[in-house]
C-alpha cells in the first residue's frame, strides 16, 4: 500500500486523517517537532527551523498531507506571532520540498491545508475563482498556497483545501462557542450576525482522504452550504441540547479592544460556496447543521 507522510499529524485534524488512512491500509508516517512526544513507531522528528529531520520518514512515501501550522487563535497577533504563523506553514513546506528534491523523491500527490480566510471579510458567497481578500489571514493563505504550488515540480497532483471552521466535539472552535451554554448563556460575539462556513471534523478529514484517493488537484472550499450566522448556530445548539439560554451580546468594540486585529477570527463573515467540492462526488456524512450538532452534543 502507498505511504503517506503527514505534517501536523499530531493535531486535531491530523490525528483523524491518520486514523482514516491507517484503517484503509496506508502506511502512515507523522512528522512531529517535539522529540519527547514521539509515542509510536510511525512518528518521526523534524524541525524546519533548524533544518533537521529524520529522513527515514521519507522512505516509501507516495503522498504528503501538509497540515503543519501554528494555531492562529492561540496567541495575540504580535509581529513575532504573525511571523511564526506564516513560517510554520510556508518555511516548513519549503524545507520539506528541498528534502524531497535532495533525495529525488517523486510524489503522486501533495495535499495542503489552507483556509477560507483566503477570501477575507464579506457576506458575498465566494467560490474558488474569487479574488484574494484583505487582511492578515488572507495573506497567510496566499503564501501558504503559493508554497504548495511549488510542489508541482515533484508531485503529479497538488491540491489546496480551503477549510471552513472545523467543528469537533472536544477541540478547536466548537467547544469554545458552546461553553457558555453550561451556564445557560448564549454569547453573541459582535451581535452574532457574522456568517460562518463550517464543516464537521469527520467530513474535513474525509475529504482530505478522498482528495488523495481520487487524485484531485487544484483548490477546493471544504465546508458545508449554506454559511450560517453565528446566532443561528447558537440557537440550534440550544435547541438540540435542550438547554434554553439567555442571549448575551458581546459588542464588537470590546472584542476588538481585547484582541486587536485577531478579533477578525470571530467577527468577520466568510461565506464560501462548496459546489466544486460536491462536484467531485464526495458524499457528506454531516451535510447540515442539525445532523452535525446531534453528533457533537452529548
Q: In words, what does this structure look like?
A:
The chain is an alpha/beta fold. It has a single domain (3-296), classed as Rossmann fold, CATH 3.40.50.720. 36% of the residues lie in helices and 24% in strands. The protein contains 10 helices and 16 strands. The chain has helices spanning 12-23, 79-102, 136-149, 173-178, 201-213, 230-241, 252-259, 264-267, 275-279, 289-296; strands spanning 3-7, 27-32, 43-47, 52-53, 63-66, 107-115, 122-126, 155-163, 165-167, 185-189, 195-196, 198-200, 218-222, 228-229, 246-250, 270-272. Strands 4-3-2-1-5-6-8-13 form an 8-stranded mixed sheet, with helices on both faces. Strands 7-16 form a two-stranded parallel ribbon. A hairpin with a 4-residue loop joins strand 3 and strand 4. 42% of the residues are buried.
Structural class: alpha/beta
- Per CATH, the class reads Alpha Beta
Number of helices: 10
The domain count comes to: 1
Topology as a string of helices (H) and strands (E): EHEEEEHEEHEEHEEEHEEHEHHEHH
Question: Which stretches are low in confidence, meaning pLDDT under 50 for 5 or more residues running?
Answer: none
CATH level 3 topology: Rossmann fold
Amino acid at each position: 500500500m502507498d505511504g503517506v507522510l503527514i505534517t501536523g499529524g499530531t493535531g486535531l485534524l491530523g490525528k483523524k486523517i491518520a486514523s482514516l488512512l491507517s484503517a484503509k491500509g496506508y502506511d502512515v508516517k507523522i512528522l512531529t517537532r517535539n522529540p519527547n512526544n514521539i509515542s509510536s513507531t510511525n512518528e518521526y522528528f523534524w524541525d524546519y527551523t533548524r533544518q533537521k529531520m529524520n529522513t527515514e520518514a521519507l522512505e516509501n512515501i507516495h503522498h504528503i498531507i501538509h497540515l503543519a501550522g501554528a494555531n492562529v487563535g492561540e496567541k495575540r497577533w504580535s509581529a513575532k506571532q504573525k511571523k511564526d504563523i506564516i513560517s510554520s506553514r510556508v518555511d516548513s513546506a519549503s524545507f520539506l520540498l528541498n528534502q524531497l528534491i535532495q533525495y529525488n523523491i517523486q510524489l503522486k500527490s501533495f495535499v495542503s491545508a489552507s483556509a477560507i480566510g483566503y477570501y477575507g471579510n464579506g457576506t458575498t458567497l465566494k467560490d474558488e475563482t474569487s479574488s484574494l481578500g484583505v487582511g492578515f489571514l488572507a495573506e497567510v493563505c496566499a503564501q501558504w498556497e503559493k508554497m504548495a504550488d511549488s510542489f508541482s515540480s515533484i508531485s503529479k497532483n497538488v491540491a489546496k483545501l480551503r477549510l471552513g471552521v472545523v467543528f469537533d466535539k472536544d477541540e478547536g472552535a466548537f467547544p469554545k462557542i458552546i461553553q457558555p451554554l453550561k451556564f445557560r448563556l448564549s454569547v453573541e460575539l459582535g451581535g452574532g450576525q457574522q456568517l460562518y462556513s463550517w464543516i464537521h471534523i469527520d467530513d474535513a478529514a474525509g475529504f482530505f482522504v478522498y482528495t488523495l484517493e481520487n487524485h484531485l488537484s487544484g483548490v477546493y472550499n471544504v465546508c458545508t452550504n449554506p454559511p450560517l450566522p453565528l446566532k443561528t448556530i447558537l440557537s440550534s445548539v440550544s435547541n438540540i441540547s435542550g438547554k434554553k439560554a439567555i442571549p448575551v451580546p458581546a459588542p464588537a468594540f470590546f472584542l476588538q479592544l481585547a484582541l486587536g486585529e485577531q478579533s477578525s477570527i470571530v467577527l468577520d463573515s466568510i461565506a464560501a460556496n462548496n459546489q466544486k467540492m460536491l462536484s467531485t462526488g464526495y458524499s457528506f456524512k454531516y451535510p447540515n447543521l442539525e445532523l452535525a450538532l446531534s453528533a457533537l452534543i452529548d
